[in-house]
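thought: user wants a sequence for this fold. calling inverse folding tool.
action: design(structure=
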């Protein structure tokens, strides 16, 4: 079975939560594509060029524990705007998406560029304030000394960079279902997403 779920949206909207819930429910493999760009950004901060970092990315780079710091987030957003970086990572993502057993990928351009023919597409979003609060809680719980106002500024800056880049800008695919999580709890978000994918999967199996 080759069934692909594409999940896009801005930072801290809940893409990862949705993707993990779908993967667990249906037994699909899950790829957080943002980690690929975070890993490239981390290596750039350590001195590699973006092109070299992207073309020589290793599994060990993606599973590092220091990929979710504010510094790496900013670096990831910057390298993600570079065509040579995106090109180097496209092949890996597309091969993962069509693996046997089904796959769910979350990122910024999955439904528009990486997997435009995905069987199910979701665009997960939320208000700036809601996303900043969630990310602030996450960062402070991890011991980072950040302010909620500072996190909000970072999120708005990243949103602008992701949406305005010339190569593969962040936007909802025309056939994606929009899921606004601003006023939803985790259970509500997961239930909505699972029902949407279940409906698409059942229709696909009947074809």
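)
observation: tool returned 207 residues.
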């Amino acid at each position: 079975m080759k069934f692909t779920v594409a999940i896009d949206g801005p930072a801290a909207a809940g893409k990862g939560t949705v993707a993990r819930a779908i993967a667990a429910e249906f037994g699909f493999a899950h790829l957080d594509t943002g980690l690929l760009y975070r890993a490239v950004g981390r290596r750039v901060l350590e001195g590699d060029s973006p092109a070299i970092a992207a073309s020589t990315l290793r599994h060990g780079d993606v599973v590092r524990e220091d990929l979710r710091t504010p510094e790496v987030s900013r670096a990831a957003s910057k390298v993600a705007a570079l065509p040579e970086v995106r090109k180097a990572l496209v092949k890996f993502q597309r091969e993962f998406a069509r693996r046997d057993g089904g796959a769910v990928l979350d990122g910024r351009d999955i439904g528009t560029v990486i997997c435009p023919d995905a069987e199910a597409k979701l665009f997960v979003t939320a208000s700036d304030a809601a996303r900043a609060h969630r990310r602030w809680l996450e960062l402070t719980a991890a011991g980072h000394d950040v302010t909620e106002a500072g996190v909000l500024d970072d999120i708005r800056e990243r949103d602008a960079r992701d949406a305005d880049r010339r190569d593969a800008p962040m936007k909802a695919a025309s056939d994606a279902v929009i899921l606004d999580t601003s006023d939803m709890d985790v259970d509500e978000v997961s239930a909505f997403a699972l029902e949407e994918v279940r409906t698409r999967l059942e229709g696909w199996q009947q074809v």
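thought: summarizing for user.
answer: Here is the designed sequence. The chain has one domain: 4-198.
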